[in-house]
Specification:
Layout (H helix, E strand, L loop, with lengths): L7 H19 L7 H12 L7 H16 L4 H11 L4 H15 L4 H6 L3
Length: 115
């Protein structure tokens, strides 16, 4: 049986390629959605703390799903206040930006329902 000698330089190159491939596969994808970017920018512009952009986007989209299920603005505002530790003003803004960005069909519903 013949053995091929593999020197330290070959192993270093192999490890470097392996680590580069792993980094590329595990890196979080950059947001390419302009709606998501504008949504996060609006929240940040109002001083609403966003520790995780993806979680904020998911929560914004979830507001629309809850509106689809018949939830009211006051219920959603309270949910945001409890789940995201937002003030009433921040929760109202978050809900308004969520509907504008992800479900504009509910914009008049949230604007007219009062809280």
């Amino acid at each position: 049986m013949t053995h091929t000698k593999v020197g330290p330089a070959t192993w270093s190159t192999f490890i470097a390629v392996l680590l580069s491939a792993a980094a590329a596969l595990s890196a979080a994808p950059a947001s390419a959605d302009q709606t998501d970017d504008a949504f996060v920018a609006a929240l940040v512009g109002q001083g609403i703390p966003i520790p995780d952009n993806d979680a904020a986007i998911q929560m914004g989209r979830n507001m629309c799903a809850l509106l689809d299920q018949g939830a009211t603005r006051p219920v959603l505002a309270l949910k945001l206040m409890n789940d995201a530790n937002l003030s009433a003003r921040q929760a109202g803004f978050f809900l308004g930006v969520s509907t504008s960005a992800y479900c504009p069909q509910y914009t008049s519903v949230t604007a007219d329902s009062g809280s």
